[in-house]
Amino acid sequence: MSKMKLRSLLAIGSSAFLLAACQGEDASNGASDEPATEEEDTGSDAGEDTAEDTEAVDFSIAMITDEGGVDDRSFNQSAWEGMQEWGEEHGLEEGEGYAYYQSDDSADFVPNLNQALADGYDIIYGIGYLLLDSVNQVADQNPDQHFGIVDDVSDRDNVVSLTFADHEAAFLAGVAAAETTETGQVGFIGGIAGPIIDRFETGFTAGVAHVDDSIEVDVQYAESFGDAGIGQQIAAGMFSNGADVIYHAAGAVGNGVFTEARNRMESDPDTQLWVIGVDRDQEEEGEYDGGNLTLTSTIKKVGTAIQESANTAMESEFPGGETIAYGLEEGGVDLVEGNLSEDAWSTVQEVRQGVIDGEIEVPEFSYSQE
User: Fold this and answer.
1) How many angstroms separate the CA atoms of 314 and 60, rounded?
2) Which of 19, 54, 154, 226 fits 91 for a cystine, CB–CB 3.0-4.6 Å?
3) Acidic residues bias located where (predicted)?
4) CATH match for 166-300+333-356 among 3.90.1150.10, 3.30.1510.10, 3.40.50.300, 3.40.50.2300
């Protein structure tokens, strides 16, 4: 069954309240129907005024989420927030000029793509490498329709591929973790093992070693992007074994990592634990009674990439068959300052410039791709 689109800003604001209320509870598999965003939480009607003052364009885009869902507070939500900004910029209404279709599992990919196709959207984006085969299948069946794939490369002429140098941002996260840990043990929790998440793991472990190769890195995979309970379970084991900083690259699984860290910090505030967020600034996820435990976050500007490719198609020509890559130099990935110490942030900035200048080479994969 096709998933429904967003209904209204009121529904989003209500969902944001529910998400905030649930953050102190143990993680579960439950998902809200709508994503929460800071702009919507303010209750401001500035976005509506902008839409009213802007002449709407005759163009529309849609996105199909991966299994993490649109309210994963990470990858999919970053894409959706970028799409919302694009719609506001062009005077478009949700559900008409732009929309999302939520996938609970991979069986929803093709039906959702076909539903978006039937609903008449000009470009349909698959958010995440898990959708590549489905996007290619539907693209082959509809050669005149424009598609986009995020985090993988399609060789179809009617698909634009948007890729990111995740290993570069993760390298900075590794530097931040190594500069911060007091136990000499840090953790990495990946979602589903594969080339994309391997980039995160490879960059992170290399960044830690760049600072101090004696620091232990515990690497584990949840084999899910949506099960926050597994994320909490893995994080509990890592923290119990001595890790004091955990970086997750696991979508909604990471919500469980934050939950476990919050629970431990609230029960024993004398023990400092940190979580490094992914894909968007996850500082809000680290809030607890005693402060904030989000050390920093790697940023992946999925929404910006969607906005840029949609504008290119609207203003000139759809970049079908092209691969558009975003790294530190292009500003497509980065690391926020967050709660890093002054010394740690200074080191991160030096390393960032070294990567951009080519003085520091960041490995991309831990294994050879077949």
Assistant:
1) 9
2) 54
3) 35-52
4) 3.40.50.2300
> What is the SS3 string spanning 270-312?
CCCCEEEECCCCCHHHHEECCEECEEEEEEECHHHHHHHHHHH
- Each residue of 225-281: pLDDT tens digit? 999 999 999 999 999 999 999 999 999 999 999 999 999 999 999 999 999 999 999
DSSP class per residue in 46-86: HHHHHHHHSPPPS--EEEE--TT-TTSSSHHHHHHHHHHHH
Smallest CA-to-CA distance from 246 within 176, 197, 288, 186 is with 186
Q: Which pTM does this prediction carry?
A: 0.81
What tokens appear for 262 in the block? 């919050």
Which portions of the chain are predicted below pLDDT 50? 1-51, 368-370
Q: Among candidates 257, 252, 255, which has minimal Cα distance to 187? A: 257
Q: Cβ distance 214 to 183 under 8 Å?
A: no
Give me the residue spans of the domains in the chain: 166-300+333-356
Please choose, from the candidates 201, 272, 262, 258, the residue with its C-alpha nearest in 3D space to the C-alpha of residue 229: 258
Take residue 111 and report the two structure tokens written for it.
Answer: 């039906």
